[in-house]
Amino acid sequence: MQWDLRPARDFGLPAAQRLRSHAREPGLPSLTVHALWQRLVRLYLLTFHRLAVTGRENLPAAAPFMLIGNHTSHLDALTLASVLPSRLSQRAFALAAGEVFFSSLAAAGFAAVAVNALPIWRKHTGTGDLAFLRQRLEEDRLVFILFPEGTRSRSGAMGAFRHGIGVLVAGSAVPVVPCFLEGAHAAWPPGRWLPHPGKLRLKIGAPLAFSEVPKDRAGWAAVAAACEAAVRELRDEHVVVRR
Amino acid sequence: MIFNVATVAEAFASPVTLWLVAATFCTLLVAVLATLLLAVTGLARPALRHELWLRIGSWCLLLPAMILPVLAGKAWLILAVTLLGLLCLREYSRATGLFREPVVEAVAVLGLLLVNFAALDHWYGFFMALSPLTVSLMAVVTIPLDRPSGYVQRTALGIFGFMLFGAGLAHLGYMGNEPTYRPLVLLLLLSVALSDVLAFTIGKLLGHAKLVPATSPGKTRAGALGALLGTTAIVAAIGHVVFLGTVMDRPLLLVLLGVLVGVGAQAGDLMLSSIKRDIGIKDMGTSLPGHGGVLDRFNSLLLVAPAVFHFVGYFVGFGWDMPKRVITGG
Question: How near does any CA of chain B get to the CA of A62, in Å?
């Protein structure tokens, strides 16, 4: 009888390295902490920011898929993660700036265990790492939360999407769900220590598919452009709704 | 209070306890001095010296972590056994992939905590009932997920893990219900470690014929036989003093006890080797430098604990005269 006995991808790594490893697979202790953290965040977003979500029906029922959006605040990843049901939240990883969230061991512990983040390093993370993340996304049936602008917008206006999103999904069956979050920049802009109360509105759009897009530079650029257009469309819809 | 720490007089009430602790620390001291001598004379290669220091450093942390809870009292012993069980279960889950089924693993953790609680409570009925009950719960708990694919694998992996690190290992803590448990528990902890050392040393010196080369290429028949004989002799000899004046103090029973420890220790080792070979890994972890994971160190204890418990329990029992259900009442 053949069983599928697969050790954890990060099996045998020392604890400190595990926290920063792209191979990290959370176990029962991390999952418990993460579930508690998710509940706290959900409660916080509902009470402190009166989060309103539209388009929930656009979320795929099963992983793998990607959640992407505009990036203006530390609230963004927390908000996008909070709309996932717990069954999907267990397998959702936020791709976060290594320099910001994984610099110290304590920060890395919090980012890895509570938020379930994986580090993207501006200098060190190359195409090889992205290829591994793409493989994990598909094989482990994960959800990646990613902000393709690559950094928080200082002004609140949306910047251009970078190609990394294309490297992750071009030519793959994994759908990309575009989101637009409004109000996060006013509530917690870059440079401020703590968030202010303020209304947050999250709009979730219909999933995009890129299985026909070639896996090359042109394809990556096409994916990034299509994703950016989809998020901009959601933003402009928002304006219409508000009038 | 349950977590009272025993006085020194209580802890060393049996002279055997004192001998065993003293012998252990003398051995460790000799090992440190021998390694220092190797370092000063430059006889051993630097890589080997580094390896030796790693092992000795690990032992310097491990031995107090093993011996102090035994000396401190029943509740501390059970707490240490619970932590050891949780660490072993975690390594096992991450090696076998059981951790990808958190619901099953959570039931194993629940069963492990309850069975150690039953030992602490001195509630033998519950202690025994928890094996079939946990197995039953594990068999049904993933049905609501409506994911029949992989059912046998996840259920079986969960039951195996609970039985080894929960139900089986908890027998070591249950021995604490007998007020004179200290010499016996120390004897078990140290003799299974001794069995490993004997098998390794005798195998290196005399061994040629392999024992089960596909399962564990390093083990030799000479090492296995030598470790069995040595462990049996030492357990029987010290057991004679431990069980002085009881039904167990008969040559045949003492030798049988020694054989049980000797065979159980090596069987536990080979069992872990089989698990590792099947998965295709070398060590169960990296938490103990020079040893590997916690399971690589404590594998020989897993099968010895329940076997010795029921063998000794049949003849002299554990805590028959002591108050039962000290926490739950009833």
Answer: 14
**Side-by-side strand order, sheet with A65-69:** A52-54, A201-204, A176-182, A65-69, A143-146, A92-97, A117-120
The CA distance from A163 to A222, in Å, is 9
| B69 exposure class (CB count in 10 Å sphere: 0-12, 13-18, 19+) | buried
Residues A142, A180 contacting (CB under 8 angstroms): no
Is residue A71 a contact partner of residue A153, using CB atoms and an 8 Å limit?
yes
For residue B94, give the nearest of A11, A31, A90 by CB distance. A11
Report residue A118: phi and psi, to 5°. -120, 140
Q: Could you tell me the two tokens for B292?
A: 């590997």
Kindly state the average pLDDT of the residues A134-160. 96
Q: ipTM value of the model?
A: 0.89
Q: pLDDT tens, B140-199?
A: 999 999 999 999 999 999 999 999 999 999 999 999 999 999 999 999 999 999 999 999
Q: Is the pLDDT of residue A242 over 50?
A: no
Residue range B14-61, pLDDT digits in tens: 999 999 999 999 999 998 998 888 888 877 788 888 888 888 888 899
**pTM for this one?**
0.92
Average pLDDT over residues B236-249: 96
| Residues A47-86: tens digit of each pLDDT | 999 999 999 999 999 999 999 999 999 999 999 999 999 8
Cβ pair B5, B76 in contact under 8 A: yes
From residue B83, give the alpha-carbon distance in Å to each of A131, B87, B127, B280.
39, 6, 18, 27
Q: How far apart are CA B50 and CA B36, in angstroms?
A: 11
Q: Contacts of residue A13 in chain B, CB cutoff 8 Å? A: 286
* Residues on chain A bordering chain B, Cβ-to-Cβ distance under 8 angstroms: 3-8, 11-14, 25, 27-28, 31, 90
Measured in whole angstroms, the distance separating CA B10 from the mean position of its chain's CA atoms is: 24
Q: How many CB atoms lie within 10 A of CB A131?
A: 12
Percent of chain B residues past pLDDT 70, beyond the cut: 100
DSSP string computed for B254-308: HHHHHHHHHHHHHHHHHHHHHHHHHHT-S-S-SSBTTTBSHHHHHHHHHHHHHHH
Q: A10 — phi, psi (to 5°)?
A: -100, 20
